[in-house]
Amino acid sequence: METVKQTFTLKSIELGGQLENRHFASGMGFTGKNQSPQLYWENPPEGTKSFGITMYDLDAPTGSGFWHWIVFNIPSNVQEILSDAGNTKKKLLPDGAVQSNTDMGFPGYAGAAPPEGPAHRYLITVHALARILELNENATPAFVGFNMHFATLAKASLLVYGKNNN
After folding, report:
1. List of residues 6+ apart from 150 with CB closer than 8 A
2. Strands 120-129 and 152-162
3. pLDDT band at 1, cuts 50/70/90?
């Protein structure tokens, strides 16, 4: 029997196919807890120097989607991010990790807030990076994405859905 090669994989103990109330915004008419999800990953590629995490709403009615969470420069020896690590006041990310601006205009996690209608698709991705990014918390999501693109060795994603039930 042929051995199956283990690939770079993103998982979560708390996420299933749907975002829970705790992952939704705690404003704009939403009663969520604005908590980023717990995430962990396995089998990063050789040469990984750091990791980045992004959470993107593919269905936001903006014409360009919506970036809910951007984290980069997670040390290469870290393979788990705790629930609510996106709360910048709690300092739950490892030393060196940077949370930069979301499309809300501030660093940290911006909970899901889909308008009424069909469920939105939220793509959560971990990027194995070949280097540390020379950026800070003021970088825009597009600029971080541009820099990640040229440093990415591999990426792994989870697709979860969120629907406005308010």
Report:
1. none
2. antiparallel
3. low
